[in-house]
Amino acid sequence: MDRTINRWAVMSGAIAILLCTGVIYSFSVFAGPLRAAHGWSMAEVMLAFTINGAVGPIPMILGGFIVDRGGARISILLGGLLFTTGFTLAGFADTLTELYLTYGLLAGLGQGFAYSGCLNNTLKFFPDKRGAAAGMITGGMGAGTVLGAPVARWLIEDHGTRTAFVSMGATYTVIVLLGWSFIRVAPVDYTPDGLTPSVTSGGPDNVPWTTMMRTSTFYLIFLMLFAGSFSGLMIASQAAPIGTSMFGLGAATAAGFVSLYSACNAAGRVAWGIISDRLGYLNAIMLIYGVVALSVLVLVSTDTRTAFTIGIVGLGLCFGGVMGVFPALVMKNFGPRFQGINYGIMFTAYSLSAYFGPKIAANISASHDGDYTNAFIVAMALALAGILVTLTLAKVQRTQAARRPGAAFSAATSGEI
Length: 417
Known about the structure:
- The chain is mostly helical.
- The chain has 18 helices and no strands.
- It has one domain: MFS general substrate transporter like domains (Growth Hormone, Chain: A, Up-down Bundle), CATH 1.20.1250.
- The chain is about 80% helix and about 0% strand.
- It is globular, with a radius of gyration of 20 Å.
């Protein structure tokens, strides 16, 4: 095993790359100007964001397949350059078809390859800190909007959407190449210096995707990921319009809340990742669902700026938590060897949320004169359903542990529900 690799340098390179691809979540800043410049409807514009998320399973699964066979650097470089190319070309889109092909398809495929490579390869370097590592890696992606949204808003206001896309895309290309130079492939069964394999394993045998998909655990986690990411994606795509139509905010103020949501998204990934290492992944996820339900309840109860702030902060932190905790949860249940393709398949739940969340929110808003109340109610119902599914998974795991010799004590002391 090559112990000369600096795993923190690999982490830094991955975070730098995902800082670039994370700008995808600032699309609500671009959506209004694109609609005004081209005369498109908001639903037509938001379909680009929907396509971007919906194509995710393709590069996530293919990228995971490449990562699991030692090709993480290939997946990451391919993804990073596809993303920056699609993002840059979106600035020249004069038709909806061109926007869908560039921002939706090319950037979506690139984001998936880069995300799969950065996350799954780097996570294998941290068997002793899975939750925290997943939180930091995905936190880089969340932080991308914190930095990208205000820059995009300034460029759009002063120079137009084309200049914003092109100049940001060119900058991201340079950062991707620099970050990629730090990427190294994780050795099989990597163990950090100072720790023995027995300390860092503590999980199941490595389970291939064909076996994973025959387990009830897979489908329960799939439903949990769908329920957890739905509200976050809905808000990520509609934060600015929600602020202006329901809470009376000006365009500049609403854009500021997009940055606030993104900051909470990034912070939540790291914070919930660390929390999940200490409390257990299922306990952390239960708390996330509870905060989501309460945050949505606040949004539907009053139309004050304070309520909007509370809702944005709560939902941002929890969406970040979902993205930070679930990669570690999948690795814990199915092992690190096939994490790339296993999490790629599991990630299709996120893609379903990316399709239904923004679409449902936009359609409800269009049919109710900018009122998103019914969309919030759907999100709250899914969060409560997520709690029930998580309790079911905990029960299934306790039952399975009780049937394994010596495993019952481990399950009882693991910190899970």
